[in-house]
Amino acid sequence: MAALRSADAVHFALLRDTLEVSDSLLSKHLAALESAGYITATKGYVGRRPRTWYALTEEGRAAFDAHIATLREIVDSAGT
Amino acid sequence: MLTPAHSDDRSPSTASESLEIAETISRRIHARRGWYIAGALVMAVVLVAFVVALAAWPERLAQVIVPGLIVVGAILAVLGWSGRTMPAATVTATNRVVGASAVLLLVALLLTRFVLPEGFSVWAALIGALPALPFLYLAWRAGRA
Q1: Where in chain A are the domains?
Q2: pLDDT for A12-51, tens place per residue?
């Protein structure tokens, strides 16, 4: 979700390369996020190459931002 | 693989690791976008330089055309590679920008050939900026993507 938060949409291969995970593991996690309504998938082509682009939904964006805020609170409270 | 080493989600070390990983991933995505913006800006500069050079030294067209095409091809390859991090709308915009820039380049070349006097001038620089404008727009748009 951090990768998707940093761009409007990111396609599968770039997500896989950025996160350094296998295709199957990434697909599993993307499917779970899509079921939860946190991301959307858009299929298209770049030239003749099929591409699937993933983007955060409003709900996904809010959930990720809340998660990051919580992590920062935990880190800050440990520091004080 | 980029995952925290610890299993306890509430521990500060896990939270800290998770934040660090999120920031690393964000930086990686932004780095690719940086190449795209840089490619668009370099293309704009190359196009201006090309038109101004032709206006100032028209007899050197044969010498600059092949290196110019190689540089343009390389920049378009960089845009294509780094465009993987761009949303589809920006990729579509790239294709339109290349087309618009090609048309403006032709207009600029015709103006420098048939309207402008030979040699460098402010007008040559302004007309040289015409084909660069679509790529400046692309760099701005990619920065906002």
Answers
A1: 2-79
A2: 888 888 888 899 999 999 999 999 999 998 887 766 778 8
CA quadruple B26, B32, B37, B40: dihedral, nearest 10: -160
Cβ pair B116, B10 in contact under 8 A: no
Q: B35: Cβ–Cβ under 8 A, 6 or more apart, which residues? A: B78, B81, B82
Q: What is the ipTM of this complex?
A: 0.77
pTM: 0.59
At B38, the amino acid letter reads A
Would the CB atoms of B22 and A74 count as touching at under 8 Å? no
SS (H, E, C) B19-58: HHHHHHHHHHHHHHHHHHHHHHHHHHHHHHHHHHHHHHCH
CA end-to-end distance (rounded Å), chain A: 29
Residues 55 through 74 of chain A touching chain B, CB cutoff 8 Å: 55, 68, 71-72, 74
For the beta sheet containing A10-11, the strands, ordered from the edge strand earlier in sequence to the opposite edge, are A10-11, A49-56, A39-46
CB contact under 8 A, A19 and B25: yes
In whole angstroms, what is the distance from residue B49 CA to residue A59 CA? 47
SS3 for A9? coil
> What residue in B sits closest to A68 (Cα-Cα)?
B19
State in words which class domain A2-79 has: mainly alpha
Count CB neighbours of A30 within 10 A.
Answer: 18
